[in-house]
What we know:
Blueprint lengths: L5 E4 L6 E4 L2 E4 L2 E4 L4 H6 L9 E7 L5 E6 L4 E7 L2 E7 L9 E6 L3 E5 L3 E7 L4 E7 L10 E2 L22 H4 L14 E5 L4 H9 L3 E4 L20 E6 L12 H25 L3 E4 L24 H13 L5 E5 L3 E2 L5 H11 L3 E4 L3 E2 L2 E2 H13 L5 E4 L7 E2 H11 L7 E4 L1 H4 L18 H5 L7 H16 L1
Parallel strand pairs: 14-15, 14-16, 16-17, 17-18, 18-23, 19-22, 20-25
Antiparallel strand pairs: 1-2, 2-10, 3-4, 5-12, 6-11, 6-13, 7-10, 7-12, 8-9, 8-11, 21-24
Helix pairs in contact: 3-7, 4-5, 6-8
Amino acid sequence: MAQPLNVEPSSIPGLMVVHLPVHGDSRGWFKENWQRDKMVAAGLPDFQPIQNNISFNVARGVTRGFHAEPWDKFVSVATGSVFGAWVDLRQGPTFGKTFSCTITSDVAVFVPRGVANAFQTLEPDTAYTYLVNAHWREGSEYLSVNLSDPQIEVHWPIPLVDALTSEKDSHSPTLKEVRPMADRKLVVLGAGGQLGRELAAHMPRVVTRSHSEVDIAEAGALAGLDPTTTGAVINAAAFTEVDRAETIEGRAVAWRVNAEGPGRLADFCNELDVPLIHVSSDYVFDGSKHGEYLETQPLSPQGVYGQTKAAGDIAAARARRHYILRTSWVIGNGPNFVRTMFTLARKGAEALVVSDQRGRPTFTSELRQAAEHLMAVKAEYGIYNVTNSGDSVSWSELAREVYRLADADPNLIRDVTTSDYFADNPEAAPRPANSLLSLQKLKATGFASRDWRELLADYVADLKRDEQ
Length: 468
């Protein structure tokens, strides 16, 4: 009678031994070598295999390895049996740790990225099979270690002097000579913008790419990213010139960057089976709603910028694993409304500021921490509103608060309606009157958004220090 599916951990973190049900009779046997739903339910990761390889070995004693590639493997046999051995070559405290077991028709092993794999055939005509979740790529990191290195404590059933090995494997480096395989990196696109600078400065293990390095509007731009070292992608790249988006030239650029680009990223992330974190905007709504916008609110953009961002949301959602972060009134390291108001305040200048658009500011540190949180807690994939908490405010009220914190007279701010402010520019992009985004879904994941007034005070204090 066939044994039930069972998954056991090993002494190497992430490496798991799988006991497969095998159904046999006088004709032979049958097994489900990989059945995604059952195996994920039993505890294996959903590693999304994309290639199946078979190594056929004529003789007993054929020994291959140790090889570590930048992908995961699911190894088994179709005929015969092997003695499998593994050594952890990943960067960290388990580097050099070993594990071994015998693989037969009813035993398979899941091998995580960076763990070196080796096997020795125990029978003639053994067909060793393995599923992988990435293709070989020239220039990527492929590690090996010598089978006979005495530092690796593996007791081969057939002594290596009597085994059949390749010339190449016999010249592999020793464990002491191997540089550990580093963790996968978080790729930040749009690193030159306010959010990009925040992510580059404060998130660990990031690879940053500016617009000049990777232009997501260009079809072949992603070819420069190494898929074997990419663990997730944050798309902070966007065309944000809302008025220029209304022009013939700007409209085309906005569609390429804000709509087509996220679609390319979604396809890229699906190919690698890594998460895509895409930054969206309050402009996907027309601002006519009373109260806060939920993530489920139907898209209703007004101008070209909002339309391209809405299309980008739809395209980014093609990624199987995606977080779309909708935000508003972004403030960080770079040109923004608060910096402009601070400069005017220090000059004691009057300023006309619109009073009929309301929302909440979003500091880039809040966006960064929300993204980190969603990934850390493995929150359900989907759309999340991300702003700072606190009361709603108009642009003119925000400007007065900046003036006050900058030790200037808040009465130097004069209210003006949006229509009057743009009276001399009839081709200006429409702005949403209401940019308030509900934070309840984000809060339900355990993330406590900070009050924008608290962060604004810190931000202005930093601007003051920078003057000294």
